[in-house]
Amino acid sequence: MPWNQRVKDLLARIRLRYRYPLILLRAMVITDFKLRYQASLLGYLWTLLRPLAMFSILYVVFARFLKLGASIPYFPVYLLFGIVLWGFFVEATSQGLSALVARADLLRKISFPRYVVVLSVGASVLISFALNMLVIVFFMALLSVPVRLDILWLPFLFMELVALTISLAFFLSALYVRFRDLNYIWEVCMQAAFYAVPIIYPLTLVPVRYARLLILNPVAQIVQDARYVLVTPETETISQLYGTPWVRAIPVGITIALVVASVVYFRRRSRSFAEEA
Amino acid sequence: MIQVRDLSKDFLLPHLRQTTLKGRVLNMFRKSRTIEVQHALRDLDFDIARGQFFGVVGRNGSGKSTLLKILAGIYMPTRGSVAVHGKLVPFIELGVGFHPELTGRENVYLNGALLGFSKSEVAAMYDDIVAFAELEESMDQKLKNYSSGMQVRIAFSVATRAKADVLVIDEVLAVGDAAFQRKCFEHFRALKKSGTTIVFVTHDMGAVREFCDRVILIEDCRIVAQGSAEEVAGRYTDLFSPQPTTAPPARGKRRGSGAISYTEVTVPALLGDEGSLTLELEAVAEQAVEEPVYGFLIKSSSGAPVLGTNSILKKQPPSGVGKGERVRVAWSVPNVFSDGLHHVDLTITDRQGLAVYDHWEEAASFTVVKEEKTPYIVTPDTSLVVTKAGAAEA
């Protein structure tokens, strides 16, 4: 068989294999969006209004009264960007956590690739995230934040964030089927993590000893790096704290390990979701 | 088409499973963990040939639905193997994924997606689906404003579009009115003609006799009979055959003060073309009751009342019952019933019907098997004479 025929066959087979998951994914995401803002006056606008409202509160409290971040140029955008990144992480993991249990009726009645349920939650949150990024772009234009060549790193950072977040969502959703108190635990974890990640305070406020520890958290590394490449180089990133860019291997390594572990765990457990969810 | 070999399925009893971290942690320190295994299916072995209409019958809790879910790939077998060749679509329930806050139209698209249809594919058959459901006017209303009958119609209408080599159907016929059930049966007849393999779980021996080429009977997690519809349907009705229930079993819904209540219900399991239905009942009074009125109501499998009466309407002279006394009540009812499963409700009330001593819904069931199959609620012995009355004058 000629190689181009073989490639064509392979593509056709892949298309056939992922046809049903894709149809399902699409239907679930659309349904989710239709339902989320039903009977709310402002509808989809809430996707944008929520982070903006949170931003205003934090900005007033921390930037105006506590005078944090005075050393950082374009602090409002810096703050908002951090909140949007963090919001994506929290939303996707906590909604992903309950995704399987919430769709238990579906799991018990039809047979379909279980990962679609978690992916659909991830995709919904990702769409909200994309809309939020538009707001960031708007604010950047408003405050005329200069765009530097560093911005080319941004897609890779987003990829790292999505990989980290979705794999955590897979892991948590499978675990939640067995341990139903996981949602409370995760909620508390997220509350604590909000302060362990330098979102509302500049990392320079933290003694270097601790800052070096905090930044090994992949979320902290991503948030700081993303701010560095998009908003201002006047922020501390992991390479500055350690004096070498190669230390990034640690948070990236953690992310890759999580992806592998979650795929293995989810696949192993997915056979019994219908019985246990 | 489908090969099932040595299939067994066990469940860990849910209330013993550790679903919280606390339970896990506490149990870690215990020496022996108490895990109880419930056997749902044991050593099932059967084949389903292409184009077969394959019936699965058995009592409630015998494991039928578990078997369907394993065939559908929703549950995994504990031991043994299941091989399905071709595309299998399960209907464990109609309208899976239906959402009350979405409109009828949106639900059609959603349900279609769950069946594997892309948006454009659903769009192409949308008009047919709506026409089949006879719901042209209300498709843009939210589903929560639909009656349950409308919901079932729209769900079934989408379901009929499913393209599959094997369809797995779990008692979807148990819902809907008579007209809808007839529509379902017509659809099944068409499917059977087109050569689709169908696995069908039901309690309705009438449907089994009419459609199934081959049937298995599951009892206590095992196959106890397999063969033609006629053989297995007979075995099935034997399961329910005259077993005078001295202690009323926990079946059916029951309410009432219990001052006097039925203790024994004897109803034939099977009623053929000949003979009448006899209900032999025994009641015992826990307290003295002045004028108990005994009544019964016979319902079709869909719950539609067929006929009923009580001892007042029968002008039975009232007679009190003393404490601890037993009463025998025997009804004889001409066999006007239509083919299929029927349920019997039993009551004992006071003369005004104000005090309810015993109201026992579905106290017993019986199956009627008649040659003449009409879609109506009764099928009495009618006679027909068609003769030629001579040639018309030309």
What does this 3D model show about the protein?
The complex is a heterodimer of chains A (277) and B (394). Chain A has one domain (23-276). Chain A contains 13 helices and no strands. Chain A has helices at 3-36, 45-65, 75-97, 99-102, 104-109, 115-142, 154-178, 182-196, 208-214, 218-230, 238-242, 249-269, 273-276. The mean pLDDT of chain A is 90. Chain B has 394 residues and is an alpha/beta fold. Chain B has 2 domains: 2-239, 3-Layer(aba) Sandwich (Rossmann fold); 254-368, Coagulation Factor XIII, Chain A, domain 1, CATH 2.70.50.60. Chain B has helices at residues 21-28, 64-71, 104-114, 119-133, 148-159, 178-194, 205-211, 229-239, and strands at 2-12, 37-48, 53-58, 79-84, 88-91, 166-170, 197-201, 214-219, 222-227, 254-255, 260-266, 270-271, 277-285, 293-300, 305-310, 326-333, 340-349, 356-368. A 6-stranded mixed sheet of chain B has the order 5-6-7-3-8-9, with helices on both faces. In chain B, strands 10, 12, 14, 15, 17 and 18 form a 6-stranded mixed sheet that branches. In chain B, strands 2-1-4 form a 3-stranded antiparallel sheet, with helices on one face. Chain B is globular, with a radius of gyration of 25 Å.
